[in-house]
Amino acid sequence: MAEIYVGISGINAVDNPGPGVGVARSLHEDPDLKVHVVGLAYDTQEPGIYMDWVINKAFIMPYPSADAEAYLQRLHYIKHSYGLDVVLPCLDAELPFFTKYQHEIAALGIRTFLPTLDQFNLRGKDRLADIAEAIQVSIPPTKVVTSLAELHRAVERIGLPVMVKGAFYKAYKAYTYQEAVAHYHKLVAEWGYPVIVQGMVFGEEMNVVAVGDGQGELLGQVGIKKMWITSLGKIWTGVTIKNERMRDVTANFIRRYRWKGPLEMECMVDGDTVYLIEINPRFPAWSYFATGVGVNLPANIIRKIYQLPLPATFDYDPGKLYIRYTDELVTDMQMFQKITTQGEN
Amino acid sequence: MNRLHQLAINDEGFVFDPTTGESFTTNPTGLTILQGLRAQKSPSQIVEDLCADFEVQPEDAERDINDFIDVLRTHKLI
Fold first, then answer.
1. Interface contact A243-B19, CB threshold 8 A
2. ipTM beyond 0.85?
3. Where are the domains of chain B?
């Protein structure tokens, strides 16, 4: 088959790593796919730009939230100057743009595999209670607030400590009401209203990466437990698990909402009780873990888009270990100069 | 299914719970008790196993079994 040019963002493999490099590695590892990875970067020093054995070519992109038209034009330029058949956006901040402009992107001849805008909005933390009820899972005591008076009432009712969260991004722990107020102001300034106040629940933090096909079926899912995390809360070591209750919750969500595209389910599990904490509508940074245990989710998306055969099974073994490590790359200034001056390497 | 049967246990006493991702280590006494419980042996049969494998009196073995079962309960494995 002809080579497929796949645009991947989130190639910032730093201390808070983006998912892009892992997604790109996964695509290269599918023996039946001929994939040419096009890195979509937002900074000239994103490490993926320099990893030419993973990212074949990289382009600097405008911020999609700042100027949608400029972003579409950039995609059009890449498509015609180099080649771009599919885009797999991997960053939170890009997803509102990509879900909103799916038709415009399709009109450029570029395919995506994303939830609809309605589906995307579903996973806002202010909608978590509705989802939890629909897919029969618990959530921590939760209040959606839009004023200090509501925040005060919510903290009083739920009891300290609480988590104070933005509707889509960021979460802070508050041990006192004063801390909750400070977090509330910070979240409102950065992300706007509403703010979510959530009670603390206890148990083991477990996560699932999965892909829905848009018709209610899974294109694979892998559950993990983070064993060791960094000071930013990012996984450093982890282990695959098979928690049937959590797998059911993920499958129920994808079936119930006909979710299309990747997602990460964050849960707290206490015995048989699974608390749904958050649903991220993108690949997590540890996505390569799933590929490493035989469930190549990015490749399954490409296979689904091009109607190629899917693997016979999406099964994997529990008890497989994931260990992240750092590496260094030494190169000359040429590539840095080129991407700085020309916007592509 | 009984959680005990889902555990992955090796000969050195390393125990992995695939449902939670927790791992534990146990000594040879605990390993014998675990294997006995997984084989659905009665406490008296496990006492016999412990007395045969280790230099231990039946009353001590019985106490070890009860203590170990408490540990398993603490970890919600039974």
1. yes
2. no
3. 3-74
